[in-house]
Amino acid sequence: MKRADAAKPNIIYIVLDQWRWDCLGIADSAHPVLTPHFDQIAWEGSYYRRAYADCPVCMPQRATMLTGFTASQHGMPYNNMRGPRSPIPNARSLPYRLSREAGYQTKAVGKMHFYPERARFGFEHISLHPNDYLNFLEDNGYGGAYRGHGLGGNEVVPAVSAVPEHLTHSHWIVDEGIRFLSQRDPECPFLLWLVFEAPHSPFDPPPPYDRFYDDFDIPEAVIGDWVGTAAEPPALLAERISKKADRLPPQVLRRLRRHYYGQITHIDYTLGRFFGELKRLGLYDDAVIVITSDHGEHLGDHQLYGKYTFLESSARVPILLRLPRQQRQYQRRVDSPALTADIAPTLLQLAGLQPDAAMAGISLLDLPERRVIYGETRDAVFATDGALKYIYYFAGAVEQLFDLNRDSDDRQNLAGSGEYAAAQAALKAGLLRYLNANQRPAVEAGALRIDPAELDIDALRALNPWAWRGPLRYGQGYD
């Protein structure tokens, strides 16, 4: 049956959790990750090679990706905030506007990480991970097997899935997406948001993906010239010590990276079933497909794991955009700086709606050649024009500057260098204007805030806040 309004394209919005920019086949990096389906979307569309999360943290990014407003605008620069501006009112969300203003059917599947857990944020219906996935495991005789190996959601040692491949959350999310295609209303366009938990730690791919990269050469971790020196930001030192990242031997790091790659390839391969179903139903060619991540993963670089920083391995993400056949620009490579905040206004534009003028995000179809983007976390703020990147850490007022054209791995800190002084000052001044415009507490008395830098190394080493294993049974969520 033909849709009543064929001018409005179906939209498929795919998000991986903690997927770094260079673990993508088409990125041609040192990481030998096989992603044939993601690469195909890039060949059929546009690949934004210098895209960033303005706040590389899970919950803030979900608000940003669904609204076009950055964390500095919506006021949630870290997880688990319960303030009055968190989350943004549903009326400003992408699914709300598509549903109310353009007649879209909206469905979300996977890791929402909203507060409260069952909030819909404008979606008509959600199949929620971990809650609904845990009930699925119960129904299939695997109650209590989610993270059944005993590792917590942020522990960074290798593991293997405690459930078979066809019962993993990545497989379940794809199954739920395929089920939606058969249950949708064929008389209206749809937005389907698929959000995977992987390759977020624990690094526990199922067989055969746990051994998939055994015969591949694994690159060594990148270590900046500032790591382990007096110039290392205290905030990064605290992360390194408390997560015991400096205690993992090289062979463990290599196995961990193999498992991380395996999780990405597992998602890519199993999404092949979803793309195949789109083709069978005649929905593939005329759909908008966008693929991205909420943030990256340090993966041992600079003796760090996880995210939270504005180093490239954490803040830089892939963005792939494939338009309907009539609008398509094949094999387009875009080097203008982009934000995950740009996705929502892009999709509103493609659906015939006007993006909110207050959004920091702008349409990916209209990116200017020159652009400076900004970001904020609880620990730091940053600015980049795509060529140079400036980071300011509140603890100790530490500054970093990296020449991304010559150093895409943040190896050499150029802050304070006479050759770069003017460029550093310009990025810092723009960052101050951005933060002031959003009335952020990062600015005090007209200058970037300075926090105490003292660290209790023994107390940090004794911490273990990343080992929490739950949820285990009966549809409980992350909290």
Label the CATH architecture: 3-Layer(aba) Sandwich
Low-confidence stretches: 83-87
Query: What is the percentage of strand-forming residues?
Result: 15-25%
Q: What is the typical, i.e. mean, pLDDT? A: 93
Domain module tally: 1
Number of alpha- plus pi-helical segments? 12
Spatial shape:
globular
Percent helix:
25-40%
List the helices and strands and how they pair.
Elements lengths: L10 E7 L18 H8 L2 E7 L5 H8 L5 H4 L19 H9 L2 E7 L13 E5 L1 H9 L29 H15 L6 E10 L34 H9 L7 H31 L7 E6 L18 H4 E7 L9 E3 L3 E2 L3 H8 L22 E4 L3 E5 L3 E6 L4 E6 L17 H17 L5 E2 L2 E2 L8 H6 L17
Parallel strand pairs: 1-5, 1-6, 2-8, 2-9, 3-4, 3-5
Antiparallel strand pairs: 2-7, 6-7, 10-11, 11-12, 12-13, 14-15
Helix pairs in contact: 6-8
Question: What would your notes on this structure say?
Answer:
27% of the residues lie in helices and 16% in strands. The radius of gyration is 21 Å and the shape is globular. The strands form three sheets. Strands 1, 2, 3, 4, 5, 6, 7, 8 and 9 form a nine-stranded mixed β-sheet that branches. Strands 10-11-12-13 form a four-stranded antiparallel β-sheet, with helices on one face. The protein has a two-stranded antiparallel ribbon with strand order 14-15. It has helices at 36-43, 58-65, 71-74, 94-102, 131-139, 169-183, 234-242, 250-280, 312-315, 343-350, 421-437, 457-462; strands at residues 11-17, 46-52, 105-111, 125-129, 190-199, 288-293, 316-322, 332-334, 338-339, 373-376, 380-384, 388-393, 398-403, 443-444, 447-448. With 479 residues, it is of the alpha/beta class.
